[in-house]
Every structure is written in C-alpha cells, then in structure tokens.
Design a protein that fits this description.
α1 (12-29) crosses α11 (260-277), α9 crosses α11 (260-277) and α12 packs parallel to α17. The chain is an all-alpha fold. It has helices spanning 12-29, 33-67, 72-104, 122-140, 142-146, 151-156, 160-175, 179-204, 207-222, 231-255, 260-277, 280-294, 299-312, 315-331, 338-354, 362-372, 384-412; strands at residues 108-109, 112-113. The structure holds aspartic acid (ASP). The site of aspartic acid has 16 residues, from α17.
Length: 416
C-alpha cells in the first residue's frame, strides 16, 4: 500500500548526537536538584509520548502486516526466518560474551579472585532483594502471559507478548473471512497504522530535547566515579557489545549483500533513542520508522519482525547476562568449566527472550543465572552502580539486531 508520510528528517540523528554530546558534560557538571528534576520532568514527557504509541503501533502494525500478506502461508515463511535469525544472533552474542570474559578475566585481579569488589552496601543489597523477589515469579509467568485473559489489561500493563499473540491471531483470522470484508478491515487497520507512524514523526521532532534530558539525568546521578571500581568489568561489556555491534552483525548483513555501515546510518535515530531511553519497547515506534522509511524495508516484514524483536530478541541483553554472571562467579573464586559456561549461556539465551524491553530488566535474569550457579543473588549489588550506562549500550545493540533481522528476513523474502 502507498505510503503518504514523509521520511524522518535526515539530519535528526546529527541533532540527537549533538544533544547526547552536550548532555554528558552537562550531567557530569550539574548535580543541583533543580537540574536533575528539570531533566527528569522533560525526559519523562518524551518517554511517555513514546510509550503512549507502543500498544497502537504493535497492534496496528502486526494486524496490517498479516492482512497485507497474499496468504497465511507467507506468515509461516517470515516467522521461520525470523525465529532462525533471532536464535542464531542470540547464540552468537552469548558466545562472544563468554569469550571476552575468558580472555580478559574481569573478575580476577593479578590472577586472584577480586572478591572484595563484591562488598555490598546495605542499600544496594536491599534494592537487589526487592527487585529479585518480586520479579522471579514474573519469569515463571512468561508463558501464561503470552495468552492474556484480558487484552485491555495486558495492554494497560504493557505485556507485549500478550498483545503480539492477540495481534497475530486477529490478523490470521482476518485473512480467513469474506474477501470483501477483509479488504475493508485491511484498509482501516493500515490507515490506523499510518496514523500512528505520523504521530511518531511528530514526537521525534522533540527527540533532541527529550534525549538531552534523559542522558543528562543519568550522568548527573551516576557520575564517572561509579565506573572506577568496576572499570575492567565495564570495559569487558563494552568491548564484547562493540564486537557484536561492529563485527558480528555487519558480517551477517554482508552475507546478504547489505552494507553494515549504511544500515547503521539508516538506523542512527533509533540507535540513539535506544541509548538514551534504555528501552527497546519505548524505541519501537522509531525503529519501525527508520527501518521502513530510511532502510526501505516493506511494512509486511517490519510489522512482524520488529514488534516481536523488541520483545524477544535481545542480543545485547543475553551477552550482558553472560558477562555479568561469569564476572561475579570469577570474582567469587568459582571455577567455571565448559559445562557451567554452557549452562550460563543457555540460560542467558532463554531468559533474554522473556526479559521485557524496559530499563534494567536483565537484572532479574542475571539473578536467575546466579541462583542456577548456586551463587548469592545479592552479589549483583555492585554492578548496579554501572548498570544504567551499560543498559543504554546493550539496548542499542538489541535494537540494532532487531533492525538487522528485518533487513535479512526481507532479503530472504526477496523484497529488499
Ligand atoms: N533495557 C533493555 C532493553 O530494553 C533490557 C535489559 O537488558 O535490561 O532492551
């Protein structure tokens, strides 16, 4: 169907980049409560505007995407290619994470377990216990939540898997009704989808200001000091994420004759938004906009691959879970052999599927892995100090991988 909306302003990513470059020193310089409060207020306005669009975009894009397919069989092919891509890149990510930990050994200081860095402040311990006890039971409910008893409640609680399931079933059912009515339904849902994309464009005009506020707030609260004791851990995560982002994913794109650099440029507004919001779900409207308008991927592919990816495909998160759990084990002097490393990697892939696309969501999954390794969940405390900045980076990797998925599936479908 013909698109009438104009593409996102091509200079937008430059303006966002400038906003981030100004926000980091501003955040490090100003610690006054009025500054943090002002940033928090402005940042939340922007975040809310993005979050407001998530449910309408997911529902309308999935339903329109399926209704625009010539038949239901097409969905099976796209689904299989998507699942294969998501699984392979997650496995690649955890292997990368494991390799970087085993080479750099961030948990050892002069070959001795650096256990003292795991000294926990009481507050961190309290925060961790609250976080894990409330969320561990959530992990068990993933499959139950996939089929929501009440779609409105699922939408209100932001349970994306439930919304996706409803959208897919609605789209498939729409394919099976009387062709005349199906056409009316497809036109209507497509119009709703295009309207939500237009809303995204309007919200994106405010992105530089919103992103400045979000990033300045993080740096004004975290500061550079928090990084020092965990510098090696921090660098290990950054290098491993960088390898996946700059080497593995571009190489995969190259296999499908797509330039990784060009694709990064196309995705820049989404990557920078992911960095500043630390939420792949909140970034979804912009990811869709960039993939369709800037990378030229057809809506019937992106509409299915991206909402699903924002929920289940988290390469950066899986990689981070691995590095964090292995780092803690190393620092506590636990010997990690091949079998244990495999268990960590396997759990990281599975839990990254269930982790929500919101800030700090992977801490729950790391707690699960620590439990499986028989380590105290409280050991997660020290990494909380650097988690936010690493969250911003791993979310960008998550979003980039989703977008590469859309490009590759589109190539497989010979649409690109
Ligand atoms: N913040 C990440 C995301 O939204 C999830 C996580 O790793 O905590 O993609």
């Amino acid at each position: 169907m013909k698109k009438e909306t104009a593409p996102i302003n091509t200079n937008l990513h430059i303006r966002i980049l400038v906003a981030i470059c100004l926000a980091i020193p501003a955040g490090l310089l100003f610690h006054d409560p009025w500054f943090t409060e002002g940033c928090s207020f402005t940042g939340n306005l922007f975040l809310n505007a993005l979050k407001m669009l998530i449910v309408p975009i997911i529902l309308s894009s999935i339903v329109a995407g399926i209704l625009n397919l010539p038949d239901v069989k097409g969905l099976g092919r796209i689904g299989a290619a998507t699942a294969l891509y998501y699984l392979s890149t997650s496995i690649l990510a955890v292997i990368t994470g494991c390799m970087f930990v085993f080479v750099i050994k961030p948990g050892l200081s002069h070959s001795i377990p650096a256990g003292q860095i795991l000294g926990l402040s009481k507050q961190a311990l309290a925060d961790t216990v609250n976080l894990t006890s409330s969320s561990l039971s959530d992990m068990k409910d993933i499959f139950i939540r996939m089929i929501p008893p009440n779609i409105v409640a699922a939408a209100a609680k932001g349970q994306m898997l439930g919304i996706i399931f409803f959208g897919i079933l609605f789209g498939i059912s729409g394919q099976l009704i009387n062709p005349d009515r199906k056409k009316i339904l497809a036109t209507l849902v497509q119009a709703v989808f295009e309207t939500t994309m237009k809303m995204t464009e309007i919200v994106m005009h405010f992105a530089p200001v919103g992103i400045f506020a979000l990033v300045a707030k993080v740096f004004s609260q975290t500061g550079i000091e928090a990084l020092k004791p965990l510098m090696i851990f921090f660098l290990t995560v950054v290098l491993a994420l960088g390898f996946h982002f700059f080497v593995s994913l571009p190489l995969l794109l190259r296999l499908f004759r797509v330039s990784g650099f060009k694709h990064m440029k196309n995705m820049a507004p989404a990557l920078l938004t992911a960095f500043s919001t630390a939420s792949s779900s909140a970034t979804l409207p912009i990811t869709m906009e960039c993939v369709e308008k800037r990378a030229g991927i057809p809506n019937r592919i992106s509409a299915f691959v991206l909402p699903l990816g924002a929920t289940v495909n988290m390469d950066g998160t899986a990689l981070y879970e691995c590095v964090a759990a292995l780092f803690i084990a190393q620092a506590m002097g636990i010997k990690i052999g091949l079998f244990k490393a495999f268990v960590v990697a396997f759990t990281a892939v599975i839990t990254s599927i269930g982790v929500a696309g919101i800030p700090a969501a992977s801490l729950v999954a790391i707690a699960v892995i620590l439990k499986i390794l028989g380590l105290p969940v409280e050991a997660i405390g020290p990494i909380l100090a650097v988690d936010r900045i690493l969250d911003m980076l791993r979310t960008s990797v998550n979003v980039f991988s989703d977008s590469c998925g859309a490009v590759i599936v589109s190539r497989i479908e010979k649409d690109g």
